[in-house]
Design brief:
By secondary structure, this protein is an alpha+beta fold. The protein is built from 16 helices and 20 strands. The strands form five sheets. Strands 12, 13, 14, 15, 16, 17 and 18 form a seven-stranded mixed beta sheet that branches. A five-stranded mixed beta sheet has the order 8-9-10-1-11, with no helix packed on it.
Length: about 550
């Protein structure tokens, strides 16, 4: 999934992992203290969610939010550490039953499932929701349904093409998926947001972006795009059908559009309703101020499970030349990039595509330089060999967020000695992923990030570098790399039935891809969050970009 750091809009800036300092769950003090039922939990955010429609959003922060209002056939667990990444049943009674050698998967829905309208959730509604992923305008989120489920080449979703014949609903409780090829981990795939049920016949156009139809414990009561969002309890949700969501607060109130520095000041002061608030990772300038004993009791920190990187569009000249891309990899001063986000307290320098938390990852540095400060001479030599000794001009996309802009400036300055002029193009945070994921709107490069969608190497490299999955919209292969050798290796690994062997093979594939230099790995970022003094039940979830798990957090004293 797109890194939630990039979704400082929501709760986390990075990190698919980490430990909450200030109290583990069940303790009497700190953010991990037991949460009570009731009250309104406040969320202070810099930017709004990308989309409320589950077929459209795909970044870590919005994925976390979706679990409050939507349910899927399976989902990730609700617990700190590795237990939070385990796939467990949600709407379904189990994690699926494979047949036909793993090419067919059958799921049975639980009893007692309803939409916020009171209408029962049926297999037809699940099918309708999944089928929306093929709609060229709507289906710009998670790509796995389209990549794995068999479908006619001309299929364009239920609104344009009608029923998808490869998803069967023999009765109201049973749904059967026919895949293009065997896929042993399809029980994890159906935890993706595109498997959210939508009442049959509904959800066309922008309908769900303005008014979601809830299947989870909360529903949208007020929504002012870009400004505010309020969730209240969905009285049609039955806790007896849901082993994951605690649903502690009576309501969640988001305030969007706040300056990050203002958010930090409010969280430090912790006055009024800000005592009931959570927010994203603090700014670099604030790190030194939260070292007091009092504030440390309210902090949560951990290493991320995501990679922040700069994608290089290999379809743009001169970035279509591998030596040019290699030169950029050599020249970038990663120390100054890390300094831009707050130094070693908030990030580690990245050398490979896969972060340290991925099983089978190989620790290596394909483009080394002294202290990671860049090898300008080596880069200049490569540019000369490529015929670009006099440099060139390129456009770098970044988000309208101070930290990301600072990273862009650090890259701009690192490439100046090579006579590479970097023009920084700033895009609104709420629409950033949609813009850079639209191939016709892509520029030469973009700063972004990626987190695993579930704990498997299969969710890191194939989504980013399989050239056969490049799409006009919702494209995650920002480098638009379409290398026959990489594609063939992805197919070879996909046939492995031993998960450990597959993860090891993905570690080696990381090296093969980086030889082509389609991206510049920049950072493995860390989370450092400050929460309100009345926050309880908080821990950093190893999924969802390492943010605070919204399905478990609440207030220690709901009456305050």
């Amino acid at each position: 999934m797109l890194v939630g750091l990039v979704a400082s809009a929501a709760l986390a800036l990075t990190a698919c992992g980490g430990n909450a300092s200030g109290g583990a769950s069940g303790e009497s003090a700190g953010p991990g203290a037991k949460a009570a039922q009731g009250g309104t939990l406040q969320v202070l955010a810099n930017a709004a969610f990308s989309h409320l429609d589950p077929a459209r959003g795909f970044d870590g922060g919005v994925n976390n939010f979706y679990r409050l209002i939507y349910r899927t056939l399976t989902t990730q667990g609700a617990a700190p550490g590795a237990d939070g990444t385990k796939i467990v049943p949600d709407l379904a009674t189990d994690t699926g039953k494979p047949s036909d050698g793993g090419k067919t998967w059958t799921f049975t829905l639980k009893d007692g499932l309803f939409f916020e309208t009171g209408a029962p959730i049926t297999s037809a509604d699940v099918k309708w929701g999944v089928s929306r992923a093929w709609d060229p305008e709507i289906g710009i989120g998670s790509p796995y349904a389209k990549q794995l489920i068999d479908a006619p080449a001309s299929y364009q979703g239920p609104y344009k093409s009608g029923e998808l014949p490869t998803i069967l609903t023999p009765d109201a409780k049973t749904i059967v998926f026919h895949l293009k090829k065997a896929y042993a981990d399809f029980g994890s795939v159906v935890a993706q947001n595109t498997f959210t049920p939508v009442p049959k016949g509904q959800g066309a156009g922008n309908a769900l972006d303005s008014k979601p139809i809830a299947s989870g414990p909360y529903k949208v009561s007020e929504y002012k795009p870009g400004a505010a969002l309020k969730l209240v309890r969905n009285d049609k949700w039955d806790k007896k059908t849901d082993d994951v969501r605690q649903a502690n607060p009576d309501a969640f109130q988001w305030t969007f559009g706040l300056d990050p520095a203002t958010i930090d000041e409010r969280m430090i002061a912790g006055q009024g309703t800000d005592a009931d608030a959570i927010a994203g990772t603090i700014q670099a300038a604030t790190v030194a101020r939260v070292q007091t004993a009092q504030l440390k009791q309210r902090t949560m920190s951990g290493l991320g499970g995501c990679t922040t990187y700069m994608g290089l569009n290999s379809t743009k000249k001169p970035l279509d030349n591998v030596k040019v891309r290699q030169a950029i990899n050599l020249a970038v001063n990663k120390q100054t990039v890390r300094d831009a986000v707050g130094g070693s307290t908030l990030a580690e320098i990245a050398t490979s595509i896969q972060p340290p938390t991925i099983a089978g990852r190989v620790d290596y540095d394909p483009y080394p330089s002294p202290d990671h400060k860049g090898d300008v001479d080596g880069a200049r030599k490569l540019l000369t060999e490529a015929g670009f000794a006099d440099g060139f001009t390129m456009t770098l996309d970044t988000r309208a967020q101070p930290k990301m802009q600072a990273m862009a400036v650090a890259i701009q300055q690192a490439l100046e000695p090579l006579k590479i002029t970097v023009k920084i193009n700033t895009i609104d945070t709420a629409t950033y992923y949609e813009v850079i994921g639209t191939t016709s709107q892509q520029h030469d490069a973009a700063i972004t990030g990626w987190c695993p969608d579930w704990p498997s190497g299969a969710t890191f490299l194939p989504p980013l570098f399989d050239g056969r999955n490049i799409t006009p919209k919702g494209n995650s292969n920002l480098s638009q790399l379409n290398d026959p050798g990489v594609n063939a290796k992805i197919d070879e690994i996909a046939k492995l039935t031993d998960v450990q062997a597959a993860n090891k093979a993905y570690g080696e594939l990381d090296k093969q891809i980086m030889a082509l230099a389609p991206v510049v790995p920049l950072l493995y970022e860390k989370v450092l969050m400050l929460v309100g003094s009345n926050i309880g039940g908080a821990y950093l979830h190893d999924g969802f970009s390492g943010g605070i798990d919204l399905v478990s957090v609440g207030l220690k004293d709901a009456g305050k």
